[in-house]
Amino acid sequence: MIKQWILFFVLFGVPVLLLAQERTQPLDSRTVSGMIRNNADESVANATIVLRTKTDSLTTRTNKFGTFSFAKVSHAEFTVSVSHIAYGTFTQRYLMNDLKPILTIPPVILKKENVIEEVHIAREGPSFKKDTVEFWAQDYIVRDYARLADLLKRIPGVMVQNDGRVFFNGQEIRNAKFNGVNYFSGNVNAIIKELPADIVERVQIIDDYGDESQGEVKRDEAIKTLNVVTKPDKSAGRMYNIMSEVTDKERYKAEYGYKSIDYTDQKSFKLQASRSPLGIAPFVAVGIVADRQ
Fold first, then answer.
1. What are phi and psi of 188, to 5 degrees?
2. Using an 8 Å Cβ cutoff, are 193 and 203 in contact?
3. Stated pTM of the model
């Protein structure tokens, strides 16, 4: 509805007639805009804004400056809800002037109330698959600088003997693999002494029946195999083995070994030197140095 008034007055002796009108009919639509900031007076980007009127619902997100805008809002009475993953929520009802085509709501201030805590997912022991039992290393606590042998001793059903032999549920493990490939010669004693425990993601005990696709004959009896699956960022490294032996009967012995491994790529060599084995060695020094990448 439009109200009209007729104004008549005399200006400098000349009669003047003015027609004045006032709009009283609400607009069919209007634009609603606003700004979202936090309690540190910083703009909040990517906040979800929902504007609801009695007839419809509109949704948008704030831009990098924290502002938003809705076009063609049907009513000047509406509710605005604001949400953001890092902040608390906000809901406010507004009753604005329905005769104005552009409406701006006061700035909305969000507070940092929603704190997302780190979630730890606990596994329920080992997993059993066809011919494979799998253990996650993080389920077992070992000391710093521990070897694979120390980790295996914590796993239920695994027994590590002093001579380096490993048994699982009473059956000897006779082969060793590293990420699915034989660990050099497949020596179980070597892998449990040489590999650090902190590079291990999973330990798998496999009943290996052979693989016809690799040219092996399918065996009737499985070979218990230990497969070490490393963490993605700790599958490469170098290992050095140094040994010296001295006697007072001119018996000398020196040994140097080097192994390099990069996931499934393996290289190794060994140097040895010896003298006539006379007498008994009073001193033996053995060391293994591992350089992990």
1. -70, -40
2. no
3. 0.47
